[in-house]
From TrEMBL, chains A, B:
GO terms for molecular function: DNA binding; DNA-binding transcription factor activity. InterPro entries: DNA-bd_dom_put_sf (IPR009061), MerR-type_HTH_dom (IPR000551), MerR_fam (IPR047057). SMART domains: HTH_MERR. Residues 3-70 form the HTH merR-type domain. The keyword Chaperone does not apply. Residues 78-122 form a coiled coil. It comes from Pseudomonas indica. It holds the Pfam family MerR_1. This is DNA-binding transcriptional regulator, MerR family. Keywords: Coiled coil, DNA-binding.
Amino acid sequence: MTTYSISDLARELDVTTRAIRFYEEQGMLSPERRGQERIYSPKDLVALKLILRGKRIGFSLAECKELIDLYDPSSGNRKQLETFMEKIAARRAQLEQQLLDIEQMKLELDTAEERCLAALAETKQKQGASA
Amino acid sequence: MTTYSISDLARELDVTTRAIRFYEEQGMLSPERRGQERIYSPKDLVALKLILRGKRIGFSLAECKELIDLYDPSSGNRKQLETFMEKIAARRAQLEQQLLDIEQMKLELDTAEERCLAALAETKQKQGASA
DNA sequence: GCGCAAGTTTACGTTTACGTAAAGGTAATC
DNA sequence: GATTACCTTTACGTAAACGTAAACTTGCGC
């Protein structure tokens, strides 16, 4: 069975060891120990991937923790599942808004760029062929 | 010509007055004054909207400031404009990743939900028609 | 047996984006 | 003239998510 050291995980998922220990401190990971040393299982790897994906989506660590707990079979808690699906829906809606915002901003930046370039051209003309 | 008080703006754009003053402190707004009182113009309203949109997209306030400076005609700086378009492109790419992450998570949550519901059904069956 | 790399804990520091009093000025209204 | 509603400044507080430094142990290679 495969195991990982903390720096294995850090390298593989591109996080710092500090972050990994922090997630453990927050109760999101619970690796085995060999003496002092942390030994991570593939299950831990998956959990860490979940955390990172949650972060990418914009969830807080607290929400990521909820997410992980959701995958814990010991909690057959349907209500939690439903509230979390709502959070995901909210996040999707926010993404839609972000897409709109970005499109809008792109449009405005494009026209700003045009004006800017036009102004530059005008300046050069007034200066004559001085360059 | 229309003007706004700070709480007009706060109401209209759904931000706190504290936030508005903070943005000014950061050099992102410079309203007129009538005595102590801040008087906002439509131009300020636009700037504040820009800030909020930038935030929604996920830009830091520092980046939002760059954004506003971009619209300032006194800076005919094309390089800034280009680097900012790059930031927007990066943000768009991140949004794509977020969409993927959300789709993936939705799939996983859906199957988790199924398993959960199935488990619940099983439990009820074993209990008989006790409810 | 020495050095070095990788691991550990403890603990204070940092950044961002405001929140939250505290303490007071101004202006309309009863 | 007292209340009420807004406005102001100053300033300390806060939450999240680690960064960073200190001080120490453990195992490997030579």
